[in-house]
Amino acid sequence: MWRIQNLEKREVTLDFSSAGMGSFRTSALTADDTTIVNAISLVEMEDDSCVQVLVCTECGIVRCESGGWVRSRRFGDALLWLPCFERISDDEVEYRPPDFFKARGLPFFEGASAERLGDLLPLFRLETTPLATLRDVALLTQWLAPWHVLGRPGEAVRVKRELLIATSSGELESVVDQIEAVLDEALADMSSARPAHATPGPELYLDGPKGTPTWKPLVVDDLGRVRISVDGVTAAVGDPA
Ligand SMILES: [Zn+2]
Predict the structure, then answer these.
(1) pLDDT tens digit string along 62-88?
(2) Cα–Cα distances in Å, from 60 out to 36, 45, 67, 195?
(3) Cβ atoms within 10 A of the Cβ of 53, count?
(4) How far is the centre of ligand 1, averaged over its atoms, from the C-alpha of 81 (Å)?
(5) What separation in Å is there between the alpha carbon of 68 and the centre of ligand 1?
(6) DSSP state, 239?
(7) Is 0.85 surpassed by the pTM of this model?
(8) How many CA atoms lie within 13 A of 120 on its CB side?
(9) Domain ranges in the chain?
């Protein structure tokens, strides 16, 4: 996760002359000196709450360029930008998130940062942002998994067992069974997710040509239940029915 500290609005002038429109003055939003919205007067939220935050710099028209799509979701008092998972299943190039997702992590706006984001760009106000679902968090777990060990985004969420060589506690096969069971349950659960206190779950070790990364997909809540998490620290649990 990229826990954003410093959000700023900066005036920018875009050169639309190649599109026959001259120059265009607007503002960009930067987070910790990375541009996260390049033209705040041009972005719009679509019906499924996906937003192209980086629009074409030559004409400003949404969808002219591919990529740069995010979907805003609320998790407790924080707002996070997720990839547009459903759209990525249809077209992973067109609807991929901005490159800063890879370079810096998923944008995570907490406390004052969340408030400031909503003030600067009201379509991202926390109060009107839909809550993340357990399904969202399961798809996020797939997205963040090293080496696509849960399959590529858009594919079925399945542990690629051949990539795993060991676990920090318990027997590997039963830990993997547990991961699949927890993810299967979450994928089918459209109820809203809320944060709960947790401790890290078992570590898994991957084998491959590029070293042995560790992977910690699960956390354990205070009742000892294994859960998926948003940030590796906080468990995502369903709303009490
Ligand atoms: Zn364009």
Answers:
(1) 999 999 999 999 999 999 999 999 999
(2) 15, 15, 14, 37
(3) 24
(4) 24
(5) 13
(6) P
(7) yes
(8) 23
(9) 2-128, 134-238
